[in-house]
Amino acid sequence: MSKQLIIAEKPSVAADIARALGGFTRKGDYFESDEYVLSSAVGHLLELTLPPEHDVKKGKWSFAKLPVIPPHFDLAPIERNENRLSVLLKLLKRKDVTGVINACDAGREGELIFRYIVQYAKIRKPVERLWLQSMTQAAIRDGFDSLRKDRDLLALADAAKSRSEADWLVGINGTRAMTAFNSKEGGFYLTTVGRVQTPTLAILVEREEKIRAFQPRDYWEVHARFAAKAGEYAGRWFDPGFKKDDDAEHKAERLWKAARAEAIAAAEGLALTQDHWDVIEYLRDAYFNHNGEQPNNRAILKAMQDKWPGRKVDNKTLFDLYPGNPSKQAGKIAGLPESMRKGGY
Questions:
Q1: Which of 157-166, 277-286, 297-306, 326-335 is the least confident region?
Q2: What number is the average pLDDT over the span 143-150?
Q3: How many CA atoms lie within 13 A of 69 on its CB side?
Q4: Cα gap 33→56, rounded to integer Å
Q5: Number of other residues whose CB lies within 10 A of the CB of residue 64
Q6: Does the pTM exceed 0.70?
Q7: CA dist 301 to 20, 304, 345, Å?
């Protein structure tokens, strides 16, 4: 009796399909029923490689050998996934398997994973496409009732292969060019380049440079509490005419001189009690005053009183400023010692 081989992209999807369709028996790395044989890849199983006759040994990489544009691409198994590839190749070549259902993820990458497997297997059996946007059992059964014809997905397959080959060409030519440049004084200094890798690393380097160049600056905000019929609410002054500039630290509510903050508070009829009630600062003080033990609210209050002698600072002040449990804010604040981030306040 002839059967169709279903190839999913990952084992969990294969298991979902088996449950939705029913009637399957597990046989190691695949399932089997009266109508179907069902297995899966584990992501990418194959990668592009240069045909051996067009490859150049590492020690001979030079600008004279660039660009590398082979007349065709070969496929090579990814070492860590060779066992799974072997399972699929055996199933594809079974005589009772007369058709194949591509059940890899609905998208370009899923299409590429399946196409490379079939290309590497060198089989010519009818292919149908399971296209799922949901993994509910009802959606899976509906998908099998309306399988798409292979020809409908050929354009997607071509796009997937084109993107894969373009990535490979960028990577191999960029890597060999940069390696040749960095090795021109002698030795071999492998310098990898990639379409995704290189710009991603550039973003990380740019961010790291900003972190290292950061200079802390004091700023002030004007906060107040206002009475209304429904009760009190907190408010914060901001500059309605503020416009963004090149300094990311400039924000509508920030003031960079204490005198201006005091002037705004006075103009609004507010009593400026403190530059900024900074819970981070008090948590740090409380932590170090308690010999590295986790501080409680009383410790934070003591730190506030020590910091601002002569001002009325009590429990009401603390909880007005930080509703809830102030000490528990430590777990959300960057820059605190690790022991302060864990519970137990």
A1: 326-335
A2: 96
A3: 2
A4: 48
A5: 7
A6: no
A7: 60, 5, 14
Q: Sorting pLDDT into bands at 50, 70 and 90, what band is 54?
A: confident
Say if residue 71 is exposed, middle or buried (CB neighbours under 10 Å; 0-12, 13-18, 19+).
Answer: exposed
Nearest to 47 by CA among 9, 13, 85: 85
Distance, CA of 40 to CA of 5 (rounded, Å): 10
Domains of the chain are: 3-163 (3.40.50.140), 170-213 (no CATH), 216-275 (no CATH), 277-345 (1.10.10)
246 burial level (CB within 10 Å; 0-12, 13-18, 19+): exposed
The DSSP annotation for 192-239 comes to ---TTHHHHHHHHHHHHHHHHH------B--EEEEEETTEEEEEE---
pLDDT confidence bin for 274, thresholds 50/70/90: very low
- Give the CB-side neighbour count of residue 67, counting CA atoms within 13 A: 9
pLDDT of residue 331: 43
Tokens of 276: 């900024």
Residue 30 has pLDDT above 90, yes or no: yes
